[in-house]
Write a structure and sequence with these properties.
By secondary structure, this protein is α/β, with parallel strands linked by helices. It contains eleven helices and eight strands. An eight-stranded mixed β-sheet has the order 1-2-4-3-5-6-7-8, with helices on both faces. Helix 8 links the parallel strand 7 and strand 8. GO terms for molecular function: hydrolase activity.
Length: 326
């Protein structure tokens, strides 16, 4: 993946120069987690009902905290989105996506449920995925009480959250207990074998580099990445048969470490008969829509995947609008 000398989108060039090239290590992880304790938590918008709920966890495991978002203006049963935050499988919490989840809830008139899954390396696979599946089962089981249309429940996530989303779609397909209607994959972390590649020019990668990728996958798998075999459902890109999975949307930038693995996965979904819309953003690095939130290219990207969710959850024209009050 050889990069051009000046590959960044014009709106992202300044940010690309300022982002430090930091590799995630155990020490860096401890620092990031410590600093996150002091981050100011944004107040919930007045038009949004935000609630933390403890739901039954996997067998023998603690309950799972989920954070729910619903517009106070919405009336009647609505679709829902189970959202999974990113963080390389080792950092993060639902609050980091408060703004995005509130936007989903407000713009689409849906219930959003964000999962506070356990993190590696303390809790390697399958704990994070099992927590996400427990939250998904709860969402389906409580659909009536929550005012959710069970046939219109989507799953989605960014980065490692996108990887967990893809794995969750595969797990749900195999267990046949619940079936998500759609999977939203925002620059997903899908393939541990990328961490072993030596042909990648990482000069222009930002926010998540190859060293961090090795650390993230090693922490999640509990072993060095790229081995001959991995546990079933641990690495979405390792699955041979992708047929029967929910329709997907996948977006990634050309300066993202996950660019190649993401496009390969999207092509394999299509080849397996799974509809997959793909958006590639020229000159965009990993997490650009969060780091440069106000840039036009970031707003356009969010608008594109929000529109994809709208099409998936409101297949009949006009339904999205009529679900909102006022």
């Amino acid at each position: 993946m050889k990069q051009a000398a000046n590959p960044f989108h014009p709106e992202l060039q300044r940010a690309a120069r300022l982002i430090p090239n930091v590799t995630m290590t155990r020490r860096a992880l401890a620092v990031v987690r410590f600093l996150s304790r002091f981050q100011r938590k944004p107040r919930a918008p007045e038009d949004m009902a935000v609630e933390d709920v403890r739901v039954p966890g996997p067998a023998g495991a603690p309950p799972v905290r989920v954070r729910t978002y619903r517009s106070r203006k919405v009336q009647g049963p609505t679709p829902a989105l189970l959202w999974i935050h990113g963080g390389g499988y080792v950092i993060g919490q639902p609050e980091q996506d408060d703004v995005l989840c509130a936007e989903f809830a407000r713009e689409l008139g849906i219930l959003v449920v964000s999962v506070d899954y356990r993190l590696a390396p303390e809790h390697p696979f399958p704990a994070p995925l099992e927590d996400c599946y427990a939250a998904l089962r709860w969402l389906f089981a409580q659909a009536g009480a929550l005012g959710v249309l069970p046939e219109r429940i989507a799953i989605g996530g960014a980065s490692a959250g996108g990887g967990l989303t893809a794995a969750l779609a595969q797990l749900a397909h195999d267990l046949k207990e619940v079936r998500p209607a759609f999977q939203l994959l925002v620059y997903p972390m899908l393939d541990d074998r990328t961490a072993t590649r030596t042909d990648i020019d990482g000069t222009n990668h930002r926010a998540w580099n190859q060293g961090s990728n090795v650390f993230g996958w090693s922490s999640y798998l509990g072993r060095e990445p790229g081995g001959a075999q991995v546990p079933v459902h641990a690495v979405p890109a390792r699955r041979e048969d992708l047929s029967g999975l929910p329709p997907a949307w996948l977006g990634v930038g050309t300066c993202d470490l996950f660019h190649d693995e993401d496009l390969v996965y999207a092509r394999r979904l299509e080849a397996a008969g799974v509809p997959c819309d793909v958006v590639v953003v020229p000159g965009a690095f990993h997490g650009f829509d969060i780091i440069t939130r106000g840039a036009g290219v970031a707003r356009d990207f969010r608008g594109t995947f929000t529109a994809a969710l709208r099409r998936a959850l409101f297949p009949v024209p006009g339904v999205a609008e009529s679900a909102k009050a006022g």
